[in-house]
Automatic annotation (TrEMBL), chains A, B:
It is found in: Cytoplasm. It is an enzyme of class 1 (oxidoreductase). Pathway: Amino-acid biosynthesis; L-proline biosynthesis; L-glutamate 5-semialdehyde from L-glutamate: step 2/2. This is Gamma-glutamyl phosphate reductase. PROSITE patterns: PROA (PS01223). HAMAP family: ProA. It comes from Erythrobacter dokdonensis DSW-74. The keyword NADP applies. Catalyzes the NADPH-dependent reduction of L-glutamate 5-phosphate into L-glutamate 5-semialdehyde and phosphate. The product spontaneously undergoes cyclization to form 1-pyrroline-5-carboxylate. Keywords: Amino-acid biosynthesis, Cytoplasm, NADP, Oxidoreductase, Proline biosynthesis.
Length: 429, 429
């Protein structure tokens, strides 16, 4: 069993660096076995893992109760305890998510392109797993199952490091998941849970270039920032989602209002939420738009021209244009035309998602071309910035970096490619 | 002029970090202008740059003579001086390479895929420039033109840091190139040459996360290793090319010999050269193959069974299986079947290029699937591992990392993508 192997490693190694190194080497070896399985076999193993999560719900909920009791004793905030809490319904949701990932089309083995060279060489680029992926996350125990499932579906080993608040829950979920995967033929060491809460283990993961191929942080800003600052291993990460919606002069008012309210208020705590609204000076219904936002309970911080529209608007400070509120708070600026909007976005966007609302197709195309963010939208709410909404199935994260993958990252982003070259004895002149 | 702007920056800033920061910010601003140009305009500007390189050949050759004189005075090795030296023919070659890059198909704007969602949203992934690319290179002054041309073709700004041996040559090439680009409408600051030889400037480039989007080191192992160890910016790099060719039992002897000789001896100093030959114990002509290599001047270091074939074979040490000779030296091992060959490669390959020679299609497909290197080949010489040979045109490098791009990296590897989302007023439920 995986837990036994892990236990043995923990017994003989004391420092986190050796521990992480030993687990990563086990994972790398197991990944070869995983990659050699057929796509169907990997999917079937994930279904078994989902079954195990449901079958072992008493043990998982018992472990979760321990975490909740410890969290209450430590005085964790109610929101944190809620993120931590599991029940039969949530556990069924976690199992369903694993099944959904199992049923996603497998990118591994896809042919990206084919080239026939004049000398007879035939070249193909084929998608292959990245290798071993490290996931560093916080209190939500569902990440243990979600991230492991995505990695395994695309043939990758996973090295999981969850938060200390969820330690018992994560162990129970990992144990059930692994039992299911092993029943399905996946090597036990393909999904490893780092068995220590020593924070130095995270540092060891970030430093494990050559042993871990990519790190995915899942959690709040401080976690992601720490990972990006310290990692020697490539990181798939997003920091802020300072997302703009620009209401162009030619925006249809009912659409503008519906999109602005949805982009800001549907869920304020997600990274795709709008944080700054830009209203064109030639848009005729600016006062109604600002009023509607305030009426729905949104705090509006505006520049002088926006304040002149409604006396409930609070003055915006310079910082507001660079702030991700993740709350029912919005900075609003009036801009003089498309160029001014593009300029504001170039200065303040975090490169996550920016949108224009207009019925002017030329302005829309210019915006979609010029704005250099991972996701650019025309006449749609920025809250659609999500792997599920993009039809990718579950996502491992939304990347605001520029290399490898941008925006919602799902299975394809967990693969790389290799070149296969087929010849008939060619030598290079 | 670019040189004037650079001079001004150098005058008012003393420390390399501020200097690099100021140049990178200029480059980022210029990149927006470059990205807004049409593909045809960027290509035309590169043709003008090539014309300028030829028109200004007296100044460039004069600058090069200064570098050569300084190099001789410093006692640079003859091979180094040869890499540094320019003449009319080499300069014409550099200009021709710039024209060839100008004429490559432009990846920017290509649609990677399109998705129509059930709610009416239309998603497209479009290739866009990465942004600002830092190139850190050594003594070959042609890299100044080659790397700048590749960056500009794909809409990227370039921040160039060449070696101190080529400082005058690089400045002259950069000045001519920039004059041509500016004549063609490219913003002058889109291609910057770091105007100091202070080594701290390289450190500042490697640390410039958020200002430089990717670093490409071009040079020897120690340069690449330093860049990979110190960079906070993503690096596109390859270290060793420890490339294997496996002669399977079912290899056709004439083909096996031709490929082995070519893979090792055509050019021994390139990263695609074979460094280890694996001969199957059931291959009937092993002695002839080893003898042919030695007859052609190759030093063969073999294991016991290879030594038994020819008394000119030198004993291989454990280190030999992990050594990139870049010389007429080869390590040769006898292996017992395909599985043993795959095991040896898994332990010792650097993940660059590995090849099998066989007429057994099943064995070949197994090799192409199982070997996890950037390039895997069947019945071809590993010396084909090259962007030009792959039909990509010029290459910025060969990547042995796993993310973003693998193997020969040309224009496509200098782009990323963004998601364009077109709606009709959709809000998320």
């Amino acid at each position: 069993m995986n837990t036994t192997a892990t236990q043995q490693i923990q017994d003989v190694t004391t420092d986190p660096e050796s521990l992480v190194g030993a687990l990563a080497r086990q994972a790398r070896a197991a990944q070869r076995g995983l990659a050699a399985m057929s796509s169907e076999a990997r999917a079937a193993a994930l279904h078994r893992a989902a079954d195990r999560l449901e079958a072992e719900s008493p043990a998982i909920l018992e472990a979760n109760a321990k975490d909740l009791a410890a969290g209450e004793a430590r005085g964790l905030a109610k929101a944190m305890l809620d993120r931590l809490a599991l029940d039969e319904t949530r556990l069924a949701g976690i199992a369903a998510a694993v099944r959904a990932v199992a049923d996603l089309p497998d990118p591994v083995g896809q042919v990206i392109d084919t080239t026939d060279r004049p000398n007879g060489l035939k070249l193909q680029r084929i998608r292959v797993p990245i290798g071993t992926i490290g996931i560093v996350y916080e209190s939500r125990p569902n990440v243990t199952a979600d991230a492991a499932a995505l990695c395994v579906r695309a043939g990758n080993a996973a090295l999981l490091r969850g938060g200390s608040e969820a330690v018992h829950s994560n162990r129970a979920i990992h144990a059930a998941l692994t039992r299911g995967l092993v029943e399905g033929g996946v090597p036990a060491e393909a999904v490893q849970l780092i068995p220590t809460q020593d924070r130095a283990a995270v540092g060891a993961m970030l430093a494990a270039a050559g042993l871990i191929d990519m790190i995915v942080p899942r959690g709040g800003k401080s976690l992601v920032a720490r990972v990006q600052a310290d990692a020697r291993v490539p990181v798939l990460a997003h920091l802020d989602g300072i997302n703009h919606t620009y209401i162009h002069a030619a925006a249809e008012p009912a659409m503008a209002e519906a999109i602005a309210l949805n982009a800001k208020l549907r869920r304020t705590g997600i990274c795709g939420a709008m944080e700054t609204l830009l209203i064109d000076a030639d848009y005729a219904r600016a006062a109604e738009l600002v009023g509607a936002l305030i009426d729905k309970g949104c705090e509006v911080r505006g520049d002088e021209r926006i304040r002149a529209l409604d006396d409930r608007v609070i003055p915006a400070s310079a910082n507001d244009w660079d702030t991700e509120y993740l709350d029912a708070v919005l900075s609003v600026a009036m801009v003089d035309g498309l160029e001014a909007a593009l300029g504001h976005i170039a200065r303040h966007s975090s490169g996550h998602t920016d949108a224009i609302v207009t019925s002017d197709e030329v302005a829309a195309e210019r915006f979609l071309t010029q704005v250099d963010s991972a996701i650019v939208m025309h006449n749609a709410s920025s809250q659609f910035a999500d792997g599920g909404e993009f039809g990718l199935g579950a996502e491992i994260g939304i990347a605001t970096g520029r290399l490898h993958a941008r925006g919602p990252v799902a299975l394809e982003g967990l693969t790389t490619y290799k070149w296969q070259v087929r010849g008939q004895g060619q030598t290079r002149p």
